[in-house]
Each structure stands twice: as C-alpha cells, then as structure tokens.
Design a protein that fits this description.
Blueprint lengths: L2 H16 L9 E2 L8 E3 L1 H9 L3 H10 L7 E7 L3 E6 L1 H12 L14 E5 L14 H16 L3 E5 L7 H13 L2 H5 L3 H14 L1 H16 L2 H25 L18 H10 L4 E3 L2 E4 L8 E4 L7 H15 L4 E7 L3 H13 L8 E7 L2 E2 L16 H16 L7 H21 L7 E2 L2 H4 L7 H18 L12 H11 L1 H11 L3 H20 L9 H24 L9
Parallel strand pairs: 5-6, 5-10, 10-11, 12-13
Antiparallel strand pairs: 1-2, 2-4, 3-4, 7-8, 8-9
Helix pairs in contact: 1-3, 2-3, 4-18, 4-21, 6-8, 6-9, 6-10, 8-9, 11-12, 12-13, 14-15, 17-21, 18-20, 18-21, 19-20, 20-21
C-alpha cells in the first residue's frame, strides 16, 4: 500500500473543493513527531502563481479539506506548511491487512514492464576480484527489487569471451595438454603463465594469433578448447555467486561472442543512416558537443566495445522487448555509455520510449582512502575476501549464546556475507566507500548484523510467548503510532528505490525501522507481567509485522536472516 499516495489524495480533494487547479505536489514525511506524520508545503510554490500569501492559500486548502478515515487531523504551521496526522484506527486496520498478506500489503506495478539488468560482467581471463563486487550485488538487488514489484526482469551477465587474448589463452591451454584443465583451477596464475609464454616465445605468439582467426572462423578444434576454457572460467564465477547468494546462472550469460554475427550489421545500419564517418581509416560516429568520436570499427576491420554494446542494445530492445535497460557498471564508464546510448537512439537501434540508464557506482577503498588492494599491491580475489568475511564473522559470534560448531559455521556464513553486502548497499552507490571490517561486523549502527540481531530478538519474543496471537492492533501511544506509520511506508520506499536504482534507500529505511522498534520494545513492554491481554496481543502483532518487514527488506538485498543470535 502506497501510503504517500493516500495522503496526496486527501490534498488533491482539498484543492478541488477550494477551486484551485491542482498541480502534482507530493507531501513529504515529517521530520519530527510534532509536525505530524506528513507535511505539505505546496502553498509556498503556489504563492507567486496565485498572487496570495502562502499562509492564506494553506488556510483555504485546510478549510476545504475533508478529514477522512485516513487523515484525522491537520494544522497550519510556519509560513504555510500543512501538517497532517494519520488516523490511528486506519493505521491499525492497514497493519492488520499487511500482517495477513504474504506481500505485506505491497501491491505490484499497475503497468509492469520488461527490464534488462546488465551486471557483474566478469572477465573470462581472470578470477573475479573486488572490482566485481559492487556491480554484482547492486545489480542483483535491483533485479530482486524490480521482480518483487512485478516487473519482468531479464538478468544479463555480459562476459568478455572474444578477442586477441583468447588466442593466447587457448594456445596455452592446448600446449599444457591434459594438465591445462588442472592449471585452470588457478585462473589468475594460468593467465600470467600464458602471457609470459606469449611475450617470451615468438612461435607461441604467432600460433596464438593464428588461433584468434581460427576461433572466429569456427574451427571445431579451437572452438572446443575455447568452450572448455569458458566453461571452467564460469565455474569460478559460479562459486563466487553461490557464496554471495546472488541469482545469476549460466542461462543469464550473454557473452561478447553472442553478438559477433551482428557487428557487421551495426556498421551497415550506421552507414545507411548517414551518421558513419571515416577518420584515419577507422569508422566513427561524431556526436554534437563531443570532441572524441565513437569508434565502431578500426582501420584493420576489427570491432570495439562500442560496436558490441550497440548490438546488445538492439537485441535487448527489439528481440527481448525491454522498456528499461540498466547497466550496472563502474562510474568511470559514464562517458562511454552516454555516447553509446546517444548513438543507439539516433540510429534507431532503440525506440525512443525505451529507458536507457547507466547505474554508476564508486570504488571500494581501503582505510587509507586508496583502491582496495592486497598488502603487496595486487588485486584482491573476491572469493578470498568472502572467505575472510566468514572467518571474521565467526570470531564475532563465537562467544554468543550456546551453539554447536556446525551452527557457528552456518551463522558465520550468513552474517559474514551479509555484512559485506549490506555495507556496500548501505551507501549511495555513486560514492566511494571505505572497507572496514570492524564497522561492518558491528552489532550497532546501520549494519546487516544489527538488522539480523533485531529480527532474532523478535523471534525470541515469540519463542518465549509460545502461544496463539489472538487480538487486534491498538494504536494507543505516540511510539506505536510512529512504528505503524513507518511499517506502512515500506512500499513507498521500495518504489522510490526501484525508480532511482538506489538500494541505500532500503537500508536507510530498515535502519530507521529497527531503531524505532528498539525504542518501542524498551518503552512498551510486551510480555511483562501486568500488561493487559489486548495490549499484549497488539504489541505482538506490531513486532510480528516488524520482523516480516525486516526479513522482506533483507531478502530483496540478498541477505538472509537468523532466528537466533
């Protein structure tokens, strides 16, 4: 249930009754309890247009506002704000509905659309490293969110599996013969060894170049070696995806080679449209206001990333029928995508009504504010980082409560991986962030562990109560009122997060919800002796809805909950 739209409808009706032409002016959440639950400040924006004092306009709106089952109190404040309070009986009823609904009362989009989310994008020549973390988990969260809200999401893992370096790698794989597949267990070392052979051995280098031609011309033997290499490389990625609890599979892979047959057609279309120019032997598209052209074919006939991206855009918009195409890629690629999107629209590869967006993100930094590296300056393998997260999580929880070693291991996986993912998702995705183990594995602050602890604490209440919850929600004080309003804001938060592709809006909401619930739990006893049965039942239901909301929010983020902590 979109709570904000309910409040907007009350304002809209007041405009109509007052004879004022309505303009979409969304209300905002009040910043303090004394300001109500929501606040409308549109009177000030109307002041110049209507030639009246904003407070006079606000009074006119208020005089024509019908207090309903949704809003039962409204007051003017300051120069023309209208503070609005939600009817506690209506709040209680809506919370009751949410508890009994598997979707917590959250509706699906009235007009669902087909969305392609391009994320992760590992290189088949190297193991996944920390640079792949943000794309993988931001893209997966966005995919989960859009799916939950009713869109048809097509996950696309665009991998680099084509080009000159693969001749080198396939030649080295053949040279190693039966040991080659074994060597691929350490993909990083395999690449270094192949590159070393390529640089030191002229015969090997020539053979590698010949293999590039053979692969691209469909030579069966070379293609078989190439497929083995890609298969084992993807196996490395799948191990990481499994640890990260992300929903990418082999079926989601769309490699560069998938578009190979379409690249010449891209050039033909650009030429037919009259937007292809030649510069120093290369074929380019020059865009207004851009000094550097988009090169789509080199002088030697080779194609570039832009050519493949244009072919992919055509496929996604026309073959898949996507109306929103989202690329979750490093912010440093912003210029590239801006140009490619412009060319795609100008050339008609993508219809005008299709939304193209670059979901940019910043860099993971170490405590010194530098890109995250190993102690010797090398690239940190993602799987090593995740394994370390589990080890550190085990240290954090080993002295809490009574667990078997098997339970500790399972908890450590959930907590460690959740900590890494949540810490990343909790910041504005366009910002760089400092990777800090102590902060992300803290039981305090906006961390995954704090959310998991709150959920487990609520479960402990129900274990202690261990009986049927039979009664209605009663909003009897300010804290209960604020908690109910916060719970019903969940759908608005998810909708905004989906529109902005900003997972941190979900984490911010969860932190505010849990913080508020902890205050509620401390000040409003649930199972304490002397609490009346109807109040006890009401508070148990509010706790239940809080737990379900935490779980659903973390599930969208790809993070598991624990029942005991």
């Amino acid at each position: 249930m979109k709570l904000k739209s309910q409040i907007n409808n009350v304002i809209k009706d007041a405009f109509k009754n007052a004879g004022i032409e309505y303009e979409p002016m969304s209300v905002s959440e009040a910043t303090k309890p004394e300001f109500g639950d929501y606040q409308f400040n549109g009177a000030m924006a109307l002041s110049k247009k209507l030639g009246k004092n904003p407070r006079e306009i606000a009074q006119n709106i208020l005089d024509n506002m019908e207090l309903t089952k949704v809003v039962n109190k409204a007051q003017i404040a300051g120069p023309g704000f209208i503070n609005l309070w939600i009817n506690p009986d209506w709040l209680a009823l809506e919370c009751e509905k949410a508890i009994s609904d598997d979707r917590l009362g959250i509706s699906k989009n009235d007009k669902p659309q087909k969305v392609v989310v391009d994320y992760s994008g590992p290189n088949m020549a190297k193991q996944m490293h920390v640079g792949h973390l943000r794309s993988t988990i931001i893209g997966d969260t966005l995919s989960n969110l859009l799916t939950f809200l009713g869109d048809e999401v097509i996950r696309q893992n665009h991998i680099g599996d084509w080009g000159t370096q693969f001749g080198m790698l396939i030649a080295y794989l053949e040279m190693k013969d039966e040991d080659g597949l074994v060597s691929l267990k350490d993909l990083e070392q395999f690449y270094k060894d192949a590159k070393g052979e390529f640089d030191a051995n002229a015969d090997f280098a020539n053979r590698a170049r010949e293999y590039v031609v053979k692969i691209q011309s469909g030579d069966e033997h070379c293609l078989e070696l190439w497929k083995n290499f890609i298969d084992i490389s993807l196996g490395h990625c799948e191990e990481v995806y499994g640890k990260l609890n992300v929903n990418l599979t082999r079926d989601d892979v769309r490699a560069e080679s998938f578009y190979n047959d379409s690249l010449s057609k891209v050039i033909e279309v650009l030429d037919d449209k009259g937007i292809l120019k030649e510069s120093n032997g290369a074929k380019c598209v020059f865009l207004d206001g851009e000094e550097i052209p988009v090169i789509v074919q080199k002088g030697d006939g080779g194609y570039l990333y832009a050519t493949t991206d244009l072919a992919a855009l055509w496929y996604r918009a026309n073959e898949l029928g996507a109306k929103r195409i989202s690329y979750v890629v490093d912010a440093r690629q912003g210029g590239h995508f801006k140009q490619v999107f412009k060319v795609a629209k100008d050339a008609g590869f993508v219809p005008e009504d299709v939304k193209l967006e670059h979901i940019a993100f910043g860099t993971m930094m170490d405590k010194g504010g530098k890109p995250f590296k190993t102690r010797d300056g090398g690239t940190v393998k993602l799987i090593d980082l995740l394994d370390e997260a589990v080890i550190k999580a085990k240290e954090t929880i080993k002295n809490r409560d009574e667990y078997t070693s098997q339970q500790i291991d399972e908890l450590a996986k959930i907590i460690g991986i959740g900590a890494v993912k949540y810490a990343d998702l909790a910041i504005n995705r366009e910002s760089n962030y400092i990777f800090n183990w102590d902060k992300m594995l803290s039981f305090e602050g906006n961390t995954s562990l704090y959310m998991q602890y709150a959920y487990a604490r609520i479960q402990s209440i129900f274990r202690k109560y261990n009986s049927t919850i039979d009664g209605k929600i009663i909003i009897s004080d300010e804290l209960e009122h604020r908690l109910a309003v916060m719970l019903l804001r969940f759908e608005d938060v998810l909708s905004r997060s989906a529109e902005d592709a900003s997972p941190n809006q979900i984490t911010t909401y969860l932190y505010e919800l849990v913080t508020l619930f902890m205050r509620f739990y401390e000040q409003n006893p649930i199972l304490k002796d002397g609490v009346k049965d109807d109040i006890k039942m009401s508070r148990l239901k509010l706790a239940d809805l809080t737990a379900k909301t935490i779980k659903q929010g973390l599930d969208i983020l790809g993070i598991k909950v624990v029942d005991k902590l």
